[in-house]
Design brief:
Blueprint lengths: L1 E10 L5 H17 L3 E17 L2 E14 H13 L3 E9 L1 H47 L1
Antiparallel strand pairs: 1-3, 1-4, 2-3
Length: 143
C-alpha cells in the first residue's frame, strides 16, 4: 500500500553541483523503480545550519515528497546512511488528515479575508454617511 512521505537530507557543502545531482538522481531512481510517484522535489540549496554537523557549518538541503510503498523507505534510508556525502536525513510519513486540515486552514483564511473586506467596506460606508450628515449640518448652519 502506498503512503505519502517526505524525505529531507543535507549534503556536505564540499560537493559540487554534479555530485549533488547524482545523489538526487539515485534517490529518485530508487523511488521510480519501486513504481513510486515523486510529487515534489524541492532543492533549497546551500544554507547555514543552526549547529555544526561533522564540523560543517553549511549544507545543501533537499526535500522530496513522494508516494511510495513503505518497504522502499527502509532501502532509501539504508542507502542514505551509506552515502558519506549525506550529513543527515529524515523521513516523515505525511498524514492524509493533515492534508485535509491544510485545506480547511486555507478555506478559513479565505473566509477571514472576506470578512475583513466586508468590515472595511462597511466602515467606509459609515464614514461617508457621517461625512454627508456633517456636510448637511454645516449647510443648515450657514442658512
Amino acid at each position: 500500500m502506498n503512503s505519502r512521505y517526505e524525505i529531507g537530507f543535507i549534503i556536505t557543502p564540499e560537493v559540487n553541483e554534479e555530485e549533488v545531482k547524482k545523489i538526487i538522481e539515485s534517490i529518485t531512481a530508487t523511488i521510480k523503480k519501486a513504481k513510486g510517484v515523486i510529487e515534489n522535489l524541492d532543492e533549497w540549496g546551500r544554507k547555514k545550519m543552526a549547529f555544526p554537523i561533522k564540523k560543517n557549518l553549511e549544507g545543501y538541503y533537499v526535500f522530496i515528497q513522494t508516494e511510495v510503498d513503505g518497504a522502499i523507505i527502509t532501502t532509501l534510508e539504508r542507502r542514505l546512511k551509506q552515502m558519506e556525502k549525506v550529513l543527515r536525513f529524515i523521513t516523515l510519513r505525511l498524514d492524509d488528515k493533515l492534508k485535509k486540515s491544510n485545506k480547511l486552514t486555507k478555506k478559513w483564511a479565505k473566509i477571514d479575508k472576506i470578512r475583513k473586506k466586508t468590515m472595511e467596506s462597511r466602515s467606509e460606508d459609515r464614514e461617508s454617511e457621517d461625512f454627508s450628515e456633517k456636510e448637511e449640518e454645516s449647510d443648515a448652519d450657514e442658512k
